[in-house]
Amino acid sequence: MYYTKVDQEKCIACGLCQIKAPQVFNYNEEGIAYTISDNNKGTLPLGKEDVESFKAAYLACPTGAIVRSTTPFSID
Ligand code: F3S
After folding, report:
1. What is the Cα–Cα distance from 43 to 20, expressed in whole angstroms?
2. Which residues form the 4Fe-4S ferredoxin-type domain (predicted)?
3. Which of 20, 30, 46, 70 is disulfide-compatible with 56, CB 3.0–4.6 A?
């Protein structure tokens, strides 16, 4: 099971993650990406059907802003 969120300090608003995985990522009015399902908290697991597109987005991000974990990210 994968959890993901965007390190928004690293995101340069390139938009690739939203193109690769539009069901997982969206971006705010400044173009900074976030995860749709949990509002970038990284606390809800990806659905099985989203894993392949998530991986494509993860690999496409030019700055490594997309982070992933097999356990939920803590809320801070
Ligand atoms: Fe940002 Fe990377 Fe997506 S730079 S818009 S998190 S592909």
Report:
1. 21
2. 2-30
3. 20
